[in-house]
Automatic annotation (TrEMBL):
The lineage of its organism: Bacteria, Pseudomonadati, Pseudomonadota, Gammaproteobacteria, Enterobacterales. This is 2-hydroxyacid dehydrogenase. InterPro entries: D-isomer_2-hydroxyacid_DH, D-isomer_2_OHA_DH_cat_dom, D-isomer_DH_CS, D-isomer_DH_NAD-bd, NAD(P)-bd_dom_sf. Transmembrane segments: none annotated. Belongs to the D-isomer specific 2-hydroxyacid dehydrogenase family. The keyword Chaperone does not apply. It comes from the Bacteria. Keywords: Cytoplasm, NAD, NADP, Oxidoreductase. Residues 9-310 form the D-isomer specific 2-hydroxyacid dehydrogenase catalytic domain. The keyword Oxidoreductase applies. GO terms for molecular function: glyoxylate reductase (NADPH) activity; hydroxypyruvate reductase [NAD(P)H] activity; NAD binding. Residues 112-284 form the D-isomer specific 2-hydroxyacid dehydrogenase NAD-binding domain. PANTHER family: 2-HYDROXYACID DEHYDROGENASE-RELATED (PTHR10996), GLYOXYLATE_HYDROXYPYRUVATE REDUCTASE B (PTHR10996:SF283).
């Protein structure tokens, strides 16, 4: 294929170097994030761009999409589409593709890591040893996790992968989600508040976006048993972050394990200063293996939509 024949693709935000290299080999690439004058770039070069690559945590603003009249596909490095206006993309015949399936295990593993780290004070205990405090006495007791009650908010692929792992810890598993999944051997609660009231650990595994924004708020934290834990591997937007901070400060709940935040990469100092909170920099899917698989999916998803014979967005009679 000659340079002229390569489809034009815009990379919105930085992705892995190895993915960028492959994109540059296989497509005619522009990098939005590198442009000095982004508006001028879009005005001069937006027409003719057929594919857009973005990250799940970044999405894309409609103001950018409006400058890409020929766009056929948005290939998301991730599974979250909460930062993309799906009504706009549907209306404008733009396909949105995600890296479904390949990051499920890693994100579920991260939920379990946060669950264990939070309940067993793993990070604090590590610090205790490194600071030489063990020489002065033993580390305080922590809380058992095996056999406890786990509530999962959101029973999609990731929620189910968490449930399978938690079953290995003999946890009793309940869930709340839009629809009951009768084929699953877990107890269903139609109402998140009722679920929250009856669990020792609440894991957030629901998609982000307007439907779930702020659903985990003061009323949920008030309903949760004392000493219960909240784990979030989904989106910061699902939790009202200020309500979480207040609930932790007031000891309405016992702790939190968080991989995602309301305004990443900014993490409130209140959370940073609390011993009973374990913090991760949104790395649920960040393993070599999974990021490689995600990269391959991003490329395949672009080719699926761009290698069609006609580069027109619309089929002709
Ligand atoms: C990625 C994500 O970390 O899948 C998603 O939606 O948020 C994550 O897996 C992110 O897209 C890459 O930065």
């Amino acid at each position: 294929m000659t340079q002229q024949q390569k489809s034009r693709v815009l990379i919105l935000a930085p992705v892995m170097d190895s993915l960028t290299e492959k994109l540059e080999q296989q497509f005619s690439v522009d990098k939005y994030f590198d442009q000095q004058d982004k508006q001028a770039f879009l005005a001069a070069h937006g027409k003719g761009i057929l594919g857009l690559v973005t990250r799940g945590d970044v999405g894309v603003d409609n103001s950018i999409l409006e400058c890409l009249p020929d766009l056929k596909v948005i290939s998301v490095f991730g599974v979250g589409t909460d930062a993309i206006d799906l009504a706009y993309t549907a209306k404008n015949n733009i396909q949105v593709e995600i890296t479904s399936g390949v990051l499920t295990d890693d994100v579920a593993d991260m939920a379990m890591a946060l669950l264990l780290a939070t309940s067993r004070n793993v990070c604090q205990a590590d610090k205790f040893v490194r600071e030489g405090k063990w020489l002065e006495g033993g580390f305080p007791l922590s809380s058992k996790i095996s056999g406890k009650r786990l509530g999962i908010f959101g029973m999609g692929q990731i929620g189910q992968a968490i449930a399978r792992r938690a079953s290995g810890f003999d946890m009793s598993i309940s869930y709340a989600s839009n629809n009951e999944k009768p084929e699953l051997p877990y107890r269903f609660f139609p109402d998140i508040k009722h679920l929250a009231a009856q669990v020792d650990v609440l894991v957030i595994a629901v998609s982000g976006g307007p439907q779930s924004a702020g659903v985990i708020n003061k009323s949920i934290f008030d309903a949760m048993p004392d000493n219960s834990l909240v784990i979030n591997i989904s989106r910061g937007s699902v939790i009202n972050q200020q309500d979480l901070i207040t609930a932790l400060q007031n000891k309405n709940i016992g702790g939190a394990g968080l991989d995602v935040f309301a305004d990443e990469p900014r993490v409130p100092h209140e959370l940073i200063s609390m011993d009973n909170v374990v913090l991760q920099p949104h790395v649920g899917s960040a393993t070599h293996e999974t990021r490689q698989a995600m990269s391959e999916k991003v490329l395949a998803n672009l080719h699926k939509r761009l290698d069609e014979k006609s580069s027109s967005k619309f089929s002709v009679l």
